[in-house]
Design goal:
- The protein is of the alpha+beta class and 239 residues long.
- Helix content is 16%, strand content 54%.
- It contains 2 helices and 15 strands.
- Strand 1 and strand 2 form a beta hairpin.
- Helix 1 runs antiparallel to helix 2.
């Protein structure tokens, strides 16, 4: 029993620093623009700084001419989450839109995963529905992924981010999961809208979310400690 307790204590001491180092901060920088737009009225937010020190939680609403766009932001060092709630009448060219450009860096090498969904509920006929986004490594001017879906003729359209459900436009390249390098500058973009175009229709509501999860990669020192912990455990078991 004493040997088991000592083994657990050694493992905890060795693995503890790994958990502490495996956390990345996300630093927002200009230009970061978070926008809700309803017809001719738009509301924009411009957060900057450390999300570890100050997570950004905000609701942004624009209302005009029979349209409302509400976007909720829940941005932390491990998850950038955007929730959309759109409604519009069927007046030609009326629309509700959520649009964000987030410029950021991570302080620790990390991995990312992008996901989301946007679902329209049309009153009668189909309007124009769109859900797209990209992740650009601005340091190397390389797109890590690009995703775009747009429909003009599908009633009650459902889009899964990165899919190919559009009846007018589909674009999917790169990977929705991959690596972020500490110190590089990235541009994260997404947009979702419902639009009475090219013709008037019966109106529509649309709801969805976009999620960008960030997980820090353990530092080499932490991985070494894990290896040492494993060796220590094996030695004590053999003893």
């Amino acid at each position: 029993m004493k040997q088991c307790v000592q083994t657990v204590m050694i493992a905890a001491a060795l693995c503890g620093p790994t958990a502490a180092t495996a956390v990345a901060d996300v630093i927002l920088a200009p230009p970061t623009v978070l926008k809700s737009q309803a017809a001719s009225v738009r509301s924009e937010k411009y957060p900057t700084g450390s999300l570890a020190a100050s997570p950004y939680v905000e609701t942004n609403t624009a209302t005009s001419n029979g349209a409302t766009s509400t976007t909720t932001y829940d941005l932390t060092q491990t998850d950038l989450k955007f929730t959309f709630d759109h409604a519009r009448d069927g007046t030609q060219y009326n629309f509700a839109d959520s649009y964000s450009i987030v410029t950021f860096q991570v302080t620790t090498d990390s991995t990312y995963t992008a996901s989301g969904q946007y679902v329209a509920d049309d009153a009668t006929s189909a309007g124009r529905t769109r859900f797209d986004g990209h992740l650009l490594d601005k340091t190397t001017n390389t797109y890590l992924y690009r995703a775009q879906q747009e429909s003009l003729n599908t009633v009650d359209q459902t889009f899964v981010f990165g899919g190919t459900a559009g009846d007018n436009v589909n674009l999917s390249s790169g990977s929705l999961s991959g690596a972020l390098v500490a110190g590089r500058t990235y541009e994260l973009f997404h947009q979702a809208f419902t639009f009475a175009s090219p013709d008037a229709d019966g109106g529509s509501t649309a709801r969805g979310q976009f999620d960008f999860a960030i997980v820090a990669v353990p530092e080499p020192a932490g991985l070494s400690l894990l290896a040492l912990g494993g060796v220590a455990l094996l030695r004590r078991r053999r003893a």
